[in-house]
Specification:
Blueprint lengths: L6 E5 L26 E5 L8 E7 L4 E7 L2 E6 L4 E6 L4 E5 L4 E5 L6 E6 L8 E2 L2 H10 L8
Antiparallel strand pairs: 1-7, 2-9, 3-8, 3-10, 4-7, 4-9, 5-6, 5-8
The chain binds dTDP-4-keto-6-deoxyglucose (T46).
Amino acid sequence: MGKLRNFKRIDLGQIIDSHDGKLSVAESDIDIPFNIKRVYYIYDFDSNKSIRGYHAHKTLEQVLFCISGSFTLKLFDGINYYEEKMNKPNIGLFIGKYIWHTMHNFSDNCIILVLASEHFDETDYIRDFNNFKKIINEKKIENQTK
Ligand code: T46
């Protein structure tokens, strides 16, 4: 498997001080490689057979965290695949443009936190997989994470 384009792992680290618990911090343009314009979270999964995502974005950049429980994230850049079990609140995955992503295998207590570079825009989505592959073949997509 080759290296996936427009993707990287982000380790926020953990602050462990004299208080109970651990603290992780994500700051715009420091830990997160863009200015955060939107925060959303996905939770209350009914079935570990559910699948979410199943799309790519044309301009949106995002960092996904699993802040409770676990799920599996699958990525495809048109050539290479990547899969990771997300279960550490301090580890985020940066997903840049034109990365097909699906999320599945959610634990009961799973909470996915997403930091996004843009406001919500349905026209930014590519929701058809064949269309995604066509766009990838036609376009030379720039790698944002050189
Ligand atoms: C993504 C993955 C990781 C809104 O109205 N505003 C929002 O900010 C969002 C995120 C969604 N919506 C609406 C649009 C749809 O009617 O909520 C519905 C479900 O959204 P979507 O199909 O995009 O949900 P997921 O879980 O498949 O995808 C979400 C993000 O939308 C998407 O950008 O990359 O999480």
